[in-house]
Amino acid sequence: MWGCGDNFPVLFPHPARPSWRSCRRCRSQRRSHCCQDRRLRRPRLLETTHSVETPYGSVTFTVYGTPKPKRPAILTYHDVGLNYKSCFQPLFQFGDMQEIIQNFVRVHVDAPGMEEGAPVFPLGYQYPSLDQLADMIPCVLQYLNFSTIIGVGVGAGAYILSRYALNHPDTVEGLVLINIDPNAKGWMDWAAHKLTGLTSSIPEMILGHLFSQEELSGNSELIQKYRNIITHAPNLDNIELYWNSYNNRRDLNFERGGDITLKCPVMLVVGDQAPHEDAVVECNSKLDPTQTSFLKVSNLLQGKLTEAFKYFLQGMGYMASSCMTRLSRSRTASLTSAASIDGNRSRSRTLSQSSESGTLSSGPPGHTMEVSC
Ligand code: BEZ
């Protein structure tokens, strides 16, 4: 069997015939469409976008990779002002992340009206509440015939995935919740929100949700990039609807030891100057400490997040320690340099020792710890 890439069998040039035979592998008659054409030969990522109808309207999602037997799908949900690409591309396309994600099929859900090229909803359109957005997820999984997930959510997306996990605990194997605020807005928050609304535009309010005041006043290239994306988004009206649903969220009512709690391993992540730091700390105090890891990072450096994600999956028994790069092993020291939130250094040291000896996967699924990187 030959592929036409290595040795294009050049027949006698004849104006009525192609100057090469069709490829036996992909059967293409045209060299430029052949699987062996050098331009197409770099590893191709299988990426397909789908939409399904749900009781609350249609939802679009993009699938990367192919389903792996006996493995959950990684399902992501993005924050307000973003879509799956602007939220997760920096993380999922980060070099070190490849060795993790290649072992999983990924499903990236776009909140309705946030997908690229989404038309603006008509005036008066009733945008789904966050609880309803969570109730759309079963339709996605049913369509794909996936039974379990590891959820990765940011901000509003973290809330949605938590709500989904509360309603469907048997289908969620783990959750990575970045900058989650599980509480409904109190009247003080509403008053502050209303006041801010008098002086700030919707994009500025959303930027205040995504970034700390320090980051915003620093006006780095990253901030300028996101300010530009949100301010000039053709679907800004849709973004405002998602923003309103986020601000009208109910309390998730987590209670440690109570009935309303997350039953799966959870990794809570927050930036140490993030607007949601207190909310995430409080959330950590309400979840089962044997199932929850709390990761506080000085900023959401992808390297640190990737590494923590890898440990998290290892703790669930999904990443063999042999998958850990030497780089990430050597970085372990920096992951353990800070005391835990309750001053218990030994617990975070346990993670270090276990990880370095490659035995984290046999330990308990989670640790409550604070890690400053
Ligand atoms: C992925 O490989 O899952 C991915 C690629 C690009 C953007 C977001 C996710």
TrEMBL record:
Location(s), subcellular: Cell projection, Growth cone; Cytoplasm, Perinuclear region
Keywords, comma-separated and alphabetical: Cell projection, Cytoplasm, Developmental protein, Differentiation, Neurogenesis, Wnt signaling pathway
InterPro entries with a match to the protein in the record: AB_hydrolase_fold, NDRG
Family as reported in the entry's similarity comment: Belongs to the NDRG family.
Function in brief: Contributes to the regulation of the Wnt signaling pathway. Down-regulates CTNNB1-mediated transcriptional activation of target genes, such as CCND1, and may thereby act as tumor suppressor. May be involved in dendritic cell and neuron differentiation.
Name this polypeptide is given: Protein NDRG2
Lineage top rank: taxon: Eukaryota
Binding partners and assembly: Interacts with CTNNB1.
GO terms of biological process kind: cell differentiation; nervous system development; Wnt signaling pathway
A Pfam family that the UniProt record links to this protein: Ndr
Coiled coil ranges: none
Organism: Rhinopithecus roxellana (Golden snub-nosed monkey)
KW Cytoplasm (keyword) present: yes
Gene3D superfamilies linked: alpha/beta hydrolase
Compositional bias ranges of the Low complexity kind: 349-363
Region Disordered, residue ranges: 336-373
Protein's UniProt keywords contain Cytoplasm: yes
GO-annotated cellular components: Golgi apparatus; growth cone; perinuclear region of cytoplasm
